[in-house]
């Protein structure tokens, strides 16, 4: 992998740094959370391809990271942003439990260290 752009020139890191500096922290947090959520859904087999990309070990890690991020940022993002992310996390946790051949005990599933036990 190279650092060159498609035009063959090196990227302008000063411009990229300026661009990211203009993005509010809440947007960065929400974007990262959505990316974790999307990746976890794919790894949990919740996409149209289903089992083609299913890897519950990877899904567990992503769900746990998402729960940690949401727990750590609770006071930093408004409930307007946090509520749908928490709902998505709960849905992922329930889908993970359903997809597992041997479901975790309540409170032991991915991210439940941060959210507490998740029930349907």
Automatic annotation (TrEMBL):
It comes from the Bacteria. This is DUF1844 domain-containing protein. Residues 100-120 are annotated as: Disordered. InterPro entries: DUF1844 (IPR014995). Pfam families: DUF1844. The lineage of its organism: Bacteria, Bacillati, Actinomycetota, Actinomycetes, Kitasatosporales.
């Amino acid at each position: 992998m190279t650092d060159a752009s498609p035009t063959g020139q090196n990227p302008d890191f000063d411009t990229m740094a300026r661009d990211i500096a203009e993005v509010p922290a809440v947007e960065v947090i929400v974007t990262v959370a959505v990316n974790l959520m999307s990746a976890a859904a794919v790894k949990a087999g919740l996409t149209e391809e289903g089992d083609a990309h299913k890897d519950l070990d990877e899904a567990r890690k992503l769900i746990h990271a998402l729960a940690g991020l949401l727990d750590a940022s609770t006071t930093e993002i408004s409930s307007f942003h946090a509520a749908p992310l928490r709902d998505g996390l709960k849905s992922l946790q329930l889908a993970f439990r359903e997809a597992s051949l041997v479901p975790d005990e309540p409170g032991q599933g991915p991210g439940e260290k941060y959210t507490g036990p998740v029930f349907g």
